[in-house]
Amino acid sequence: MPRLSKSQVILRYYLYRAVGRSSFHYPVYTLFLLFNGLSLPQIGLIATIQSIVVVTGEVPTGYIGDRIGRRNSLVVGSIIMLISNASYLVATDFIGFTFTFVMLSFGGTFMSGSGSAWLYDTLREYDVEDRYTHVSGRGRAIGLWVSVVTLPAGGFLYAINRFYPFYAGVATATLSLLLVLRLPKNRMYDADVDDEDDDRMTIVDALPIIRDQLRAPDLRWFVVYLALFSGAIMTMDMWIQPIVQDTLETTFGPQLRDWGLTKGPILGLLYGAFTVMSAIASDYASDVEDLLGVRYAMMLIPVSIAAVYVFAGLFPLLVFPMLFVMKGGSALTRPISNHYVNDQVQSVGRATLLSSVNMLRQVAGIPFRVGSGILAGMFTSMKAVAILGGLFIVGWALLWLFRSPVSADYERSAEPNASVESTTTED
């Protein structure tokens, strides 16, 4: 069987990313849980269980991805995601929905490290790994543009019939599984390719590789920075719905009621608008990386998001701009940070290491989520987010002042590869 060309592989990757994560139900799943009789504390408990699943599952599933192959790991994750989507249709109580969200988180752990590792090593096989940020950002943007349609569609489908968004979710999850099966395996896992450098990691090798690579100065402090960013900044994501509902009620509540708009369509449209911003930002991540470099991009974008949090806590009119800045900034930093981490690690054990980084980010987020919940109870959700922004700015200043997460040497060492980008922009 002839090996696929670079353009064919990237096209298949883009198609997979287009439907890789179903989002029809995302704006309304909380409403659906409440409709089925779950209480807010029960929903919070399910979220906590999800965090435990992610923390305990990331490294084992990353290791499995390194053993069975990154493409095969994506297949397993897609099957579990399909089960999660289908279980919405039969779950009726706390136990049933706990299963739904455990499957969601467990499936995600199979895909988090392996997805990034598969893409980076695939691009390396074509000698274009310097295009990782461009291809990853473009793939994420394509998926987000699809979500621009599915998010509001899910809200309107929910208004027609509460189960319709979940039927749509099952359909897209099935399509995602079919598309991931079309992705090629990395050469070291392809039985049809005689790879003399096949040196797959064993279980004995896994923990030392994680330990040694995470201890490397160029990666250690960057992971600390990512953990701070995920905890203090991205915890905001869990407060979007209450902040939006409170803001809409205090500003446009009477008008919305007069127009007969319900929560489902409104949240769907808002999430669709946020996703437009994320899609545009993700598509331009490689341009931002070229303009600023990894060092300055990772220095300036996160602190800008945090500053907007603080100002929005002081001036309520900035609440909606804050949400767009958060979504857009997050979409910019993800491909850039993933590119940097991939550049610091070796191919053998790549998925395990990337899953370990994701695990550390999840662990760091737990105290911030708990703390923000306490702060929200004491003040408001928006005040809690503003405080998180202030805490991040303090941590940001200390890190960049005393131990830069990204050294200037990384940018200089990348300069010789710059000419490759200019010769590989056309597929």
Describe what this molecule looks like in 3D.
This protein has helices spanning 6-19, 29-35, 40-68, 70-87, 94-125, 132-160, 164-180, 203-215, 217-233, 240-251, 253-259, 263-283, 285-314, 319-344, 350-378, 381-402, 408-414, 418-423. By secondary structure, it is an all-alpha fold. The protein has a single domain (6-189, 203-421), classed as Growth Hormone, Chain: A (Up-down Bundle), CATH 1.20.1250. It is built from 18 helices and no strands.
CATH architecture annotation name: Up-down Bundle
Write down the oligomeric state.
single chain
Q: Tally of extended strands?
A: 0
| Shape category | globular
CATH-assigned fold name? Growth Hormone, Chain: A
Question: How many distinct helices?
Answer: 18
Would you identify the regions where 5 or more consecutive residues have pLDDT less than 50? 193-199, 415-427
Under CATH, the homologous superfamily reads: MFS general substrate transporter like domains
**What portion of residues belong to β-strands?**
under 5%
Classify the helix fraction into a percent range: over 70%
Report the major sheet.
Answer: none
> In the residues, how many domains can be counted?
1
- What class do helices, strands and sheet pairing give? mainly alpha
